[in-house]
Amino acid sequence: MYRVLIVDDEEPVLDSYEFMLKGDADFTLSGKARSGFEALKLIHEIEPDLVFMDINIPGLDGLEVIADVHKKFPNSIFVLSTAYERFDLAQRAIPLGVFAYLVKPVSRKTFLATLETVREALKNRTASVAEPETQNPLQHFFRRTIWKAVSETEWETIRRELDFPSDKGIVFILETEETGNHSLLAEHISFRYHCRYDVILNRGLFLISGETNRDELKEYLCRIIAETLPEHDGSWGLGDLRTGTELYLSCGAALRDLEDKLQQSGSGVQNRERQRLIQLRRKAGIADPAEVRKLFALFWGDIFAACEFNLAKAKMIPVFMFLMDDISGCYTRSEESPPPGLAPDIAAEIMSLKDTSAWETWAAAAFDKLLKEATLRRSGSFPQPLIKAIACIREHYTDPSLQLNTAACAAQVSPAYLSRLFSDQLKTSFVDYLTEFRIEQAEKLIRESSLSIKEIAFAVGYQDPNYFSKIFRKLRSLSPSEFAERMVRKGG
């Protein structure tokens, strides 16, 4: 049985990883840590076989923790996880012997596939009493040595041990999701060059050994990749020719070249748009709302800075459609409805905006509604009592007597515990969540019904229409009547 430690400061992630581990008889959860210092303590106490390590944790970050312990626990496997991919982290992580790199949110399929590769690695380690470094010199070279400066004496020892034919070489890094591509490509490269490789952090790291002309090698790689991996998107980086003692410089150059290629695929702006949209779709409802709002602001800010206003508006229409589809399925399953507070014809709303100021106001409110709905729809990893409490609110929000005690009873927990769940998981209070949901429903009734403001107040759980109007104005900076008039001017 292999011991597992999970390090993450997000409870939903801890719970999700724990749940996915339970189905595997070879792994047992031995501990959870929520900060760098707690992780250090538990690693020394538990001596885990496998550590899932978030990078952005309080105190020491995940890589600092690994740097402190990887030599003391050489048989432990570390799998990094973070909310988005960063190339600078790869440069820090690879010399530490990090086994894999996961980008959150991590799907069950990806998690289990990673677990399977870890299992095989652990079996191989267990099968031999030899030190990992002497057991597999080539792997140790790619994972540790090539990323740092070495002396002439050290390099000569490495060269003899690994039978490199030359004192010089060029590093090449291939980005691909299919690990089988690495061996296939290495086989073809070896027809012309001396090539050795390893797969690290889901990337292929190749060393082309010899007095090689970089331009000729680049031309050859372009052709071989196109022929061998026709579905590959061209994400690869090539370093420069270096002596053995300076191969780490070629590694750094290859990483930078890879990053540049990814940034320049299409145009720089288009690629940033694509990457940020991917991040938005991954993070909405899962990451810290403040972080997601900032990402959204950067996303549309780049678009509006680069495009004429009407074109920029048009480019935002599919963005909202993608997000709405991710959250509710409303564009793929006709029985689903859009998130509360967003009109089905989102394109008409966006195109009716007259200037950037109007867009900014509209977009902030619309995106907030999407985030709230995403949080609810993607709450499968939330504690069950919180899910039950949210369901209670959605079912009984029209009842003026609905209170925290009512929802706590439905969730079968104490009011104090439920209040803490709302604060920790949703970053809001029970009352604020209920109030926001009621106002969202009121907006929907104003748009879609002929009810009076007084009737709408009663319909969403307010016995005093004046108090309802006060709350509405506080949250929307408009009275219900002003909101209704705006809707009429916009044609609904």
Instruction: Give the structural class.
Output: alpha/beta
**Number of distinct beta strands:** 10
Biggest beta sheet attributes: 5 strands, parallel
* Structural shape: globular
- Please state the average pLDDT score: 80
Task: Please state how the strands of the largest beta sheet are arranged side by side.
Answer: 2-1-3-4-5
Tell me the Rg in angstroms. 27 Å
Counted by DSSP, the helix tally is: 23
User: What is the share of helical residues?
Assistant: 55-70%
Beta-strand share of residues = 5-15%
The termini sit apart by 62 Å
Could you name the ranges where pLDDT drops below 50 across 5 or more consecutive residues? 128-135, 329-336
3D structure, described in words:
With 492 residues, the chain is an alpha/beta fold. 58% of the residues lie in helices and 11% in strands. It has 23 helices and ten strands. The protein has helices at residues 11-21, 36-46, 62-69, 87-93, 108-126, 132-135, 137-143, 152-162, 180-189, 214-228, 247-264, 268-283, 289-306, 309-328, 346-351, 356-377, 384-396, 404-411, 415-426, 430-448, 453-459, 465-476, 480-489; strands at 2-7, 27-33, 50-54, 77-82, 100-103, 168-175, 194-200, 203-209, 236-238, 242-243. A five-stranded parallel sheet has the order 2-1-3-4-5, sandwiched between helices. Strands 6, 7, 8, 9 and 10 form a five-stranded antiparallel sheet that branches. Helix 14 (309-328) runs parallel beside helix 16. The longest helix is centred in the last third of the chain and has 22 residues, at 356-377. It is globular. The protein starts with a strand and ends with a helix. Residues 128-135 and 329-336 have low confidence and may be disordered.
